[in-house]
Amino acid sequence: MLPPERVPVRVVLRRLAWTAPLLILPIVATGVAVSWLTGKLGLDGPLPAALTSAVVAVLAYRQYVRRVEARPVAEFWARGAVREITAGALLGGVLFATVIAVLALAGSYTIAGRGSATDVVTALGTSVAAAVTEEIVFRGIVFRFLESAAGSTVALGVSAALFGALHFLSPNATVLGLVAVALEAGVLLACAYALTRRLWLPIGLHAAWNFVQGGIFGVAVSGTRAQGVFVGSLSGPEWLTGGIFGPEASLVSVVLCLAVAATLWRQARRAGHLLPRTSPRT
Fold first, then answer.
1. Above 70 in pLDDT, residue 252?
2. Which of 27, 83, 218, 249 can pair with 177 through a Cys bridge, CB separation 3.0 to 4.6 Å?
3. What pLDDT shows up at residue 278?
């Protein structure tokens, strides 16, 4: 693990400028190209494009860090990776299962049917791919760069807000959903990264949360309808169920995730993994 570093704003901006051609463009271009190709071949579903984009994201990030920042890619060091991914997956799975348990006890979640093995495999693949790509961009780049210029607390707030805003592009996006995603996922995942200074823990957490949500309990993931082992049905007030956006917009999700995030943040502070807020240097 490499400790967080303070970097002048001019250096951060220069590094950020290189993310478009070296990281973002390859990811987007790959997704578009594979989607077009699978469409031409008559293949349905987002899985090929999502998985290919995730692989490109990892390769591009490694090259970006080595070429632009001229340092080892500590975020993806193999030592301890299995342990951190497993811990993240367990945490994400338990968190969302707890959300569903609360909704079920309130009579707001019921099982309406069963999905298929194809549904489960697709949910698993897209969950992992989305987690890898989004964690590289939002924790590996956005949070880390903001932190190096303005401190960990500023980075936490701004990166979480941007992560929530990204979900404006999701189907059935709602204001409640965007705010909830920013508070629960944006904050929690940044805290997971801050604790380990690596991407394995937030990737495992992110992937498991999405997979258990859509691939197990069969409810909407960020506004996108899903079915997995079960086909879930939600009923009740929007503040409790999340409405058409899904349980990510539920107050239950927000409260649980913020409680865990606070614990991770305290641990990161005790470990000396946070940078204090200072006036940005140029």
1. yes
2. 249
3. 66
Which residue, chain included where needed, has tokens 């693990």? Answer: 1
**Long-range CB contacts (< 8 A, 24+ apart) of 101-109?**
102/252, 103/234, 103/236, 103/240, 103/241, 103/247, 103/250, 103/252, 106/236, 106/240, 107/235, 107/236, 108/234, 108/235, 108/236, 108/240, 108/241, 109/217, 109/219, 109/232, 109/233, 109/234, 109/241, 109/247
Q: What is the pLDDT of residues 85-128, one digit of tens each?
A: 999 999 999 999 999 999 999 999 999 999 999 999 999 999 99
Phi, psi of 117 (to 5 degrees): -60, -35
Distances in whole angstroms, Cα of residue 219 to Cα of each of 97, 99, 105, 203 = 12, 12, 16, 21
Cβ contact 196:1 at 8 Å: yes
pLDDT at 101: 98
Q: Which residues pair with 233 in a beta bridge?
A: 110
Query: Burial letters for 128-162: b for 16+ Cβ neighbours within 10 Å, e otherwise?
Result: bbbbbbbbbbbbbbbbbbbbbbbbbebbbbbbbbb
Task: Assess contact for 220 and 238: CB atoms under 8 A.
Answer: no
In whole angstroms, what is the distance from residue 213 CA to residue 245 CA? 12
Residue 279: pLDDT band by 50, 70, 90 thresholds? low
